[in-house]
Specification:
By secondary structure, the chain is of the alpha/beta class. It is built from 17 helices and 18 strands.
Amino acid sequence: MTEKILSIGQLIERLATLRSDGKRVVLCHGCYDLLHPGHLKHLTAAKREGDILVVALKTDAHVNKGPGRPVFSQDARAEFLSALECVDFVILSDHPTAAPAIFAIRPDVYAKGGKHAADEGRSAAPNAEEKAAIEYVGGRLHYTYEPAYSSSALLNRHFDTMSEEARSFLQSFRQRYDAERIIREIQRIRPLRVLLIGDAVIDEYCYVRPMNKPSKANTVACQLLDSEVFIGGIFACANHVAGFCDTVHIVTSLGNANSREAFIREHLKPNVTMKAIYRDDAPTTVKRRFVERNFLAKLFEVYDFDDRDLPAAEEAELQSYLASVLPAYDVVICLDYLHGFISAQTVKTLASQARFLAVNTQTNAANIGYNPITRYPRADFACIDHQELRMATLDRFGPVEPLIEKVAERLSCAKAIGTLGHRGCLAYERGKAMAHVPVLTPPKVVDAVGAGDAFLAVTAPCVAAGMPMDLVGFIGNAVGSQAVMIVGNRESVEPAPLFDFIKALMA
């Protein structure tokens, strides 16, 4: 049946001939990772709305259905679909929605399952882009109300798509929560006003091809192939928050010389505003990573920065500004790389004046040993990597749980999360049992850069909204699973894919 599987160009040519004979075209879109009776009923019902049924199949990169997905490759899924009598043509769709396929094919009907009908009136719903596209090309949206099955539920139960630890955790977790409740809880944070304070970072990826060692030096020579620049640090964190909260404000510092401000503002989301403290004595920090292109292996890094404290005049400007704005925000997220912006005085100001303070301090090549989270006298939520917990408590080998409690007590902090890398996270709430949330996906990581920032960005408002900490840990791990599939900070974690991922996990 592979003659049914076409490129988009081939399909458009075939449809032109069929349309000249008066045939009407129906389009469906999805991942079809495990064909089941629900798929067959949906596709058969869609075919009844026209003469030619085209299925736009999501490529592997855009299957966002949870751990280990897709189980079947895009080629296998295309072959399965092409074997169905009701399907006339299959194309690969390298996009999370059907909108590009709709614009290219211009179908008479775009058919979706009836479960999506409830989203039609919401402009932020995942299918809003598709609805606008089909109306633009003069077609109509049709819902097929057939008996529903869940590929995710079937795969979660019968296929080895996650670790035994994750499966056991989810079995217990599903007794307390369901997907709709989790999504409603996340949606509750949208009205919160969020201020982020921290170091400005520009990330540059220089993609290279390693060659060999020079004849007279013990190093590796590389050929520069290409480069890519992202906003990082506090900017990336703000863009993550901005998908979930409507009001987001950044306070940071930029260098007057080559500030990169135009690039930064161009790449911030529309609902993110920024107050910059400008300094003449340091550049805007650029972290240049040299990356082997095929496997995204980082070879070495070069920092262009000056991590001394702000000069006195700029420090005074910052303190005055913080005093004026901190009372207006429901959540203050402090992302501290110790790159010269957050001084001891700023730490005191945040600890004494922020209504709700979430803190994350990070260790990097420039600050090892100098940036423990314990330099903060108070926080409402601490989110910290297990290695940084060890540095803060001077405990190299002991269990992590007591270290979280020790740091939380030191910061008078009622809630905290210790992230454990490939082992998930530990969620702490004073007076309650600590919850271990394992990693929810197999260890398939595209790029871990920025995953911790994404985790903090979404969990901090969740904690401020009063969510249970086991739920916060689950949400954070789900966000982390999305973030590690993104190169650098090329994109941010968005609500719609996150919600789809949660639905798949909870099926």
